[in-house]
Design a protein that fits this description.
Number of strands: 15
Order of helices and strands: HEEEEEEEEEEEEEEEH
Shape: globular
Distance between the termini: 25 Å
Radius of gyration: 17 Å
Length: 220
Amino acid sequence: LLLGASWLPGVAAAAGRVNAIVVFVKGDVQIKRSGEAAYAVLSLNDLLYFGDEVKTGPASQASMATKGGAEVRINENSTFNTDARAGVRETVRLKVGQLWTRMLHKMAKLDVKTPSAVCAVRGTEADIEQRSLLTVKVYEGHVDVHNAQGKQSLAAGQMSTVAGGGAPAAPKQMGTAEVGNWQDGIQTKDKDMQTFLDKLTDANGDKKLKLKINKDGTTK
């Protein structure tokens, strides 16, 4: 696989610690590096550093694997930030739009911060959409949704919303019409994901994360 421009000598060192690697891009997807004013085209294999911002246009999507072992898929018309600095919990920020998460190994954890609430994703597949209303749907595992007004814990098959500055609504079971599938249009293969994670950890000099793949190709 060819490496993006962020692998050029001097660029990675100037940008700081790597936070994620791009594993899928479709359509108009742009990145604004931390501390810069202009956006540039985001490409497959590009590295994301703490504080970078990604935005997708209409009919455009992207996906990235994070250093903590999560895959984050971003739907069209979304603006997403990697956290400005490393912390105890891996964190991303969804300003507006929609993202879907899955954990690539059982120890992975991810906090998704939105203007309405923080969504603590634990060993989970979850869909988080921030428009005028925050909507959180859990497909596997569980997610805690919390803000200054309250907290709700969601299990698989449940959803919650947050309106304005209010508390998260009590969990309810998703109906058939509420189950989303936009994330299925993003084609990332588990057999290729280890290669991406190896590049990501090599860039940081971190201990490599090893996926455990079932016989049917799904991640354990």
